[in-house]
Amino acid sequence: MKAINVGLIGIGTVGGGTFTVLQRNAEEITRRAGRPIRITVVADKNLELAQKITGGQVTGGQVSNGKCRITDDAFSVVNDPEVDIVVELIGGYGVAKELVLKAIANGKHVVTANKALLATHGNEIFKAAQDRGVMVAFEAAVAGGIPIIKALREGLTANRIEWIAGIINGTTNFILSEMRDKGLSFDTVLKEAQRLGYAEADPTFDIEGVDAAHKITILSALAFGIPMQFDKAYIEGISKLDAIDIKYAEQLGYRIKLLGITKRTPEGVELRVHPTLIPSKRLIANVEGAMNAVLVQGDAVGATLYYGKGAGAEPTASAVIADLVDVTRMHTADPEHRVPHLAFQPNAMADLKILTMDEVQTSYYLRLRVADKPGVLADITRILADEQISIDAVIQKEPGEGETQTDLIMLTHQTREKRINAAIAKIEALGVVAGKVTKLRLEELGK
């Protein structure tokens, strides 16, 4: 059968991996797809790199001698009448959005790994694709090589998804693992992560939770059949996390992970990213280093866990090529009979409220620096009781020699965030409490 022609925009880490894996496994991929999938043109600003990876020629002509042509003009790819599928791997919101929408307008299918683009402009992009009768595939946008998008869109369609909790940023998971294992400070481990290439020179999107928020926004839309609503996500990163809290959490039987969490509740949908205490006996609590894991709770299947590499050239390329195979298989299918972009039929999307953080219910870890004298614990528990917050566990550390203050650590049962915030404000006003109360959220992640 006639080959499917692919235009690849961006041949950096993931683009290079995609080209390499597609070439290496060409025979196997053709057997799966039913026809050859070949990259016929690559666009990248770095022509020298593109030429080195592809062995292609910098010309305006067509494919020759089995080599693809390369160009620094990305728009020439989306306007190329010979290209069937455009793979967008440049990232960002600006030119990437223009390229994707132009490719769709030209009747081309799109494969992208761009979680930021989809989380912020996905509603517009999917509507354009629906109107034009083309597909936008994005398995590589969340958790690298882990097929979590396919699981939600297809494998779990019999289920009413109840919640998702994911370690979906490898940089932060590496940092938290190192802080726990070695007792080092956040700043020290971040520098090591940058040295090893796990963290960017500007790590803001990772360490402040923005990257994870883009991904959980996509998963939330797939799980509950709602539009992308990144602007309503609660986002809190790990940059202010203290190593002492990781140590205390461990003593209490918990580990701290940066989780993306989305839950369906009677009041609406929770959509949040923050450091979270998880019982150390849970499998997801034991995901270490730069690995990713996503835990999905469905009403019929129960809990399912998806684990693997969330980044890297070939793991992410694996997801990109899986999308290319899917699009190739469905290339000539009636658009009405394809799997919907967001798992639910476009005319059946739900208009569910995204809850503010004040409305969210969870349990809490509190660390207070208090005076070492009688009556302190009674004063604090009275304030919590006034806010209808019950206590699950308390640890009061012995003060050091000559010290007059000590750490008090408390775990609460479930309560609303606005109640815990009101209680903390009153606790901090007590004369026996020094400084601010450290508050972390806690999720059991059981049924």
Can you walk through the features of this model?
With 447 residues, the chain is an alpha/beta fold. The chain folds into 3 domains: 4-145 and 313-346, NAD(P)-binding Rossmann-like Domain (Rossmann fold, 3-Layer(aba) Sandwich); 148-309, Dihydrodipicolinate Reductase, domain 2, CATH 3.30.360; 361-442, 2-Layer Sandwich (Alpha-Beta Plaits), CATH 3.30.70.260. Helix content is 36%, strand content 25%. The chain has 15 helices and 17 strands. Strands 7, 8, 9, 10, 11, 12, 13, 14, 15, 16 and 17 form an 11-stranded mixed beta sheet that branches. The longest helix has 18 residues, at 115-132. Mean pLDDT is 94; it is low at 61-65.
Extended strand count:
17
What composes the largest sheet? 11 strands, mixed
Oligomer: single chain
**Count of helical stretches:** 15
Main CATH class of the largest domain = Alpha Beta
Number of domains: 3
- Report the CATH topology name of the largest domain: Rossmann fold
- Which consecutive residue ranges, at least 5 long each, have pLDDT under 50? 61-65
CATH architecture of the largest domain: 3-Layer(aba) Sandwich
Global shape: elongated
What proportion strand? 25-35%
What's the topology here?
Blueprint: E1 4-9, H1 13-24, H2 26-33, E2 37-43, H3 47-54, E3 69-71, H4 74-78, E4 85-88, H5 95-105, E5 109-112, H6 115-132, E6 136-137, H7 148-155, E7 161-167, H8 170-182, H9 186-196, H10 204-207, H11 210-224, E8 234-235, H12 243-251, E9 254-265, E10 268-279, E11 291-298, E12 302-309, H13 313-330, E13 361-371, H14 376-386, E14 391-396, E15 405-412, E16 415-416, H15 417-428, E17 433-442
Parallel strand pairs: 1-2, 1-4, 2-3, 4-5, 5-6, 8-10, 10-17
Antiparallel strand pairs: 7-9, 7-11, 9-10, 11-12, 13-15, 13-16, 13-17, 14-15
Helix pairs in contact: 1-13, 2-13, 5-6, 6-11, 8-9, 14-15
